[in-house]
Every structure is written in C-alpha cells, then in structure tokens.
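Entry:
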Amino acid sequence: MVSYVTADEAVSRIKSGSHIHIASASQVPSILIEALSRRVENEGIKDLHFHHSYSEGYPLFADKSYAGAFIDQPFFVGPQVRPSISEGYADYLPVHLSETQLLYRSGILPCDAALIMVAPTRDGKAVSLGGDVVCSLAAIEMAKQVIAVVNPNVPYTFGDAVIPIRKIHAFVYDEAPLVETTVPESTEIEVAIGKECAALVPDGACIQMGIGSLPNAIAAQLRDHKHLGMHTEMFSNGLMELMKAGVLDGTRKQIDYGKAVSSFVLGDKELFDFVNENWSVLMMDINYTNNPGIICRNENVVALNAAVEIDLSGQVCADSVGSRVISGTGGQLDFIRGASMSRKGKSIVATTSRTKKGQSRIVSMLKHGAGVVTPRASIQWVVTEYGAVNLYGHSIQERANLLINIAHPDDRERLEREAFDLFGPYLKMYSVK
C-alpha cells in the first residue's frame, strides 16, 4: 500500500544547489513546486536548478519573482517559459530530445531529485507515469530522491510508463485536473499544406508528427489512408482521431506490431481518457521513441515536422527567431535521421510560405543568431501551400530554384535576386522542377 505525506514534508530534504527533474507536458507536479516556493520564502533555500521538457500550466519554477532561488534550465522552451527565457530569468539547455535521458544516465547532468506525477496503482506494486515518460524514467533511475504526486486524473498507460512502487521515496496525493492543450482550427492555407503532405504519405506508412493546427490539418487529410502506423515522440488529438477512425492500426509495422508508440501525451481530456488503460498504446522511454536506429526498423517511416525559417541551401531553423529561442531542438533531427535510414522512408518539413506578419519563411539566409535544427545535408522534402519539393540529392543552386518555386509568389523575384548575389551567374543554368 502507498503511504502519503504532505507536499511540504515530501520536499523538506531538497537542499540548496540541487538539480531537480520535473515531469513535463500536462503532468507538471505543481503542488511540489509550490511547496518548494514556500521553503524559499520561509527558509531561504536557493540555487534550485529545474530541468524539464515542454510543460503546460503556470511555470512557477520560471517566475522571475524567484530569480536566484529557482533557476529554470529547460530542454525545450514552451510558450509558458518564453518570457522568462527572453528576459534572462531562465536559460535554455540545447539537446536533442533523444539525448535528454543520456544527460541523466551519463551523469553529465546531476539529478538530486525527480518530481513526477503518476496514476494510482492498480495492483499495489506499480504505478504509471501516464502521459509523460520522455526522460522521467532516466531521472527516476538516477535521482537521489524520487517524489511522486499520485493523481487519479493521470491516465494509466503501459510500456515503459509502468514503474515499481519501490523506486519512489515519497508519495503525495493530489486531485488537480490535468492541464489541457487546445489547438486552433486549421486555416485554409494549412489545409492546403495538409493535402500536399498527405499525397506524400503512402498507405502502410509509419508516421511521426507533432501538435498544432498544421499537424492537425495534415492528420485530417490522412483519413482516407489505410493501415498507417505510429512511432512518434508526442501523442496528440490528431493521431487519436486517426486511431478511432481505424486508419492508424499499426498492422504494417515491423516492430511493435499493432501498437501506437509514443513518449508523451499532449491534448485534452478526451485524449487522456483514450490512452487510459489502452493496450494499443505504448508509452516508451525517449531513448526508444527517438532513437534513429530504432525508428528505422520500421519501413516507410514518414517524419512530419515544422520550421520557423528555411534558407535557400536547405538549412532549417525550428527553435528560434534570430537569437530569441522560442522552442527547442526537440526530436526533429532524431526523426529526420530515422526516416532517412528507414527502407522507403522520407522526411517532410512543412511550413506556411509566410508568417502571420507577412514575412517569407523561405529566406536567402537565416536571421542573425538563428539556430540550425536540421542541417542541409539531412533535409529531404519541403512543403508549403504552393507545392512540395525534394531537396535531397540536389546541389545548393538547384535547391535555391526548387525552394523559390514554392515560396510565396510575391517573394520569388526578391529571392531570385538574392540567390543570384549568393550563388553567382550560373544559378539560372538550373531549371529544376
């Protein structure tokens, strides 16, 4: 049986200078962060370093009123922590999502405490990490203290999510609802991109995609496909709808036959309920979901990712606007590499031709300070609402022509001039279509 303590009792042994792993997605253990904030105010503990992936909810751990006491160093920058990052109260830690677990397991990043949220035990022997495995499993293995918030709203999921009770040092009970993630309706432009992407996905493909109005638009255009599989880092509502429709059944997969494989869940209560005690869903360690050597064991892997900017040589910026970090490396390159290694696999980077402010996303050069998430040597398909082009196997000058052809029509003439200045008089010798 599980014995509970208060949140204040649970965090009482955490010392100043500790490195603390926080469960992510919709399972941030806010009750424990609040207890630590009380220790800051009452006892003056400080220099608490927090590490986590994409997190929903109010980020007290990144609140500038706790500057010096709380030092947030996330592996991925979500909208909740962007202001703190921009103002210097938090500090992004760049790492491929597949390697977040390695930071802990190698000891490069210490883990003094792991603060997690779990579903209640079913058998008195184990609990489930629910919708957040990612690197939490590695943190649990390496942490000196593991504190779990038991919450009946957390879905009980299978795979690597199931962990023995003996690995946890303290249990706290909380019934706070999980934070839900809602996505705006897809625009007409995003629907057009969805159609272009769907045309590149064959029946029987094993897909990876994220969350947002554009991924949802792509998922909606896959409703007429057959026997799709899923091996992804994030399980979203769009993928759930494909499973409910019988489109995504995993019957053409070479590994994890008939199973939908993911590492974290991000969506609404309908999605949480769907994955709860669903044996068709496996929640796995990020070293499994995002390992290119495992990804490629399935055939026809199609990786679908997004971009902030793409330069004319094929470099993809996906984590920043110039030097301002707005997301993270995430698993984009993990899956692009895995898809390229998969038999008949392909990777797709999909983006609108312009931002909401009317700026071209296809540029001659990335903004000063922009991060390159996918190098030009790894890029394959690029899709906008104006078409799809495959850059793989093409020279830089050929790529420039291909990308200009799918840029917004009003930006093409300027891009041609800039390309000419960059690449010289031979650019026009390539009329690649």
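The mean pLDDT is 96.
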